[in-house]
Automatic annotation (TrEMBL):
Organism: Pengzhenrongella frigida
PANTHER family: ABC TRANSPORTER RELATED, IMPORT ATP-BINDING PROTEIN
Origin superkingdom: Bacteria
An example Gene Ontology CC term for this record: plasma membrane
Limits of the ABC transporter domain: 24-261
Classification via InterPro entries: AAA+_ATPase (IPR003593), ABC_transporter-like_ATP-bd (IPR003439), ABC_transpr_LolD-like (IPR015854), MacB-like_ATP-bd (IPR017911), P-loop_NTPase (IPR027417)
Molecular function terms from GO: ATP binding; ATP hydrolysis activity; transmembrane transporter activity
Name used for this protein in its record: ABC transporter ATP-binding protein
Length: 275
């Protein structure tokens, strides 16, 4: 597989997918935390399209705005400026009730901490979002997901009786159970050993290839990013590079070139301070 790299030294004007089938998009997305001297611009104007039926990875240094982007896309945080559209619906124009409904019915989440309910079994955790939304559980779909995550023999165990990898797979199954339009995963393999993480990534990719799921995943791990169809790179709240059909090597190459740009910028700053 060959990698197609699009990168410019510091910024590219827009990373909008050429495909017409876009599941989630942002235009002119700005997020500023705080005000005055202490204000932090976490997102500095982002235009992005996430393609339907693809696994998109988001990478970038710590503090570059990856989690903020996911939270703003998912309506978990308010935006300072710009628009977010999920599956044709403008998130910014929604009231609290509509937002809650969007999150319950159209979005799935997988966080680094698994957020499972300790008193419920694996099966109950998986169907919880559907139960809360009072939606029926589609048994065929449920069985397909449980088989895919390899949890059939663990369904009646509580989270404390499961390994970290198994717990994360329950969290994945829970995100998939409601057939959301898109799943947002923030470092889903961050707490997993290499075997569990391989299983989870293979499963996420299968959920895209076999079940037609759309997934956006933040990761620091080039090996994880290589499972994606496309990788977007953030730096200082901006999208600075994009890679389609990534490999571990091509991801590492971009990360290297981005930190080289960072090093050059720091060197310039040091020189001007010294001058
Ligand atoms: N609630 C908040 N209040 C103030 N600043 C915040 C808040 N949340 C995030 N930030 C700041 O916004 C910037 C982006 O944070 P974000 O969490 O999106 O980074 P990240 O790319 O996910 O980093 P990491 O890889 O460490 O998870 C950082 O400078 C962070 O300190
Ligand atoms: Mg983060």
């Amino acid at each position: 597989m060959t990698s197609n790299v699009t990168t410019t030294p510091r910024e590219i004007p827009s990373l909008t997918a050429t495909s017409t089938s876009v599941i989630a998009s942002a235009r002119g997305l700005v997020k500023t935390y705080g005000t005055g001297d202490t204000a932090v611009q976490a997102l500095a104007g982002i235009d992005v399209d996430f393609a339907r039926g693809e696994l998109t990875a988001i990478m970038g240094p710590s503090g570059s705005g990856k989690s903020t982007l996911m939270h703003c896309m998912a309506g978990l945080d308010t935006v300072t400026a710009g628009t977010v559209v999920i599956d044709g619906e403008d998130v910014g124009s929604m009231n609290q009730r509509q937002l809650t409904r969007l999150r319950r019915t159209r979005l799935g989440f997988i966080f680094q901490a698994f957020n499972l309910v300790p008193t419920l079994t694996a099966a109950e955790n998986i169907t919880l979002p559907l139960d809360i939304a009072r939606r029926p559980v589609d048994r065929t779909h449920f069985d397909a997901i449980v088989a895919a995550v390899g949890l059939a023999k663990r369904l009646h165990h509580r989270p404390s009786e499961l390994s970290g990898g198994q717990q994360q797979r329950v969290a994945c199954a829970r995100a998939l159970a409601a057939r959301p339009a898109v799943i947002f995963a923030d470092e889903p393999t961050g707490n997993l050993d290499s075997k569990s993480s391989t299983e989870l990534l293979a499963f996420l990719r299968r959920s895209v290839d076999d079940l037609g799921q759309s997934v956006v995943m933040v990761t620091h791990d080039p090996r994880a990013a290589a499972y994606a169809h496309r990788v977007l790179f953030l730096a200082d709240g901006r999208l600075v590079a994009e890679l389609t059909n990534p490999t571990q090597a091509s991801v590492l190459e971009i990360l290297g070139s981005l930190s080289a740009v960072d090093d050059a910028a720091s060197a310039r700053e040091l020189t001007s301070v010294g001058a």
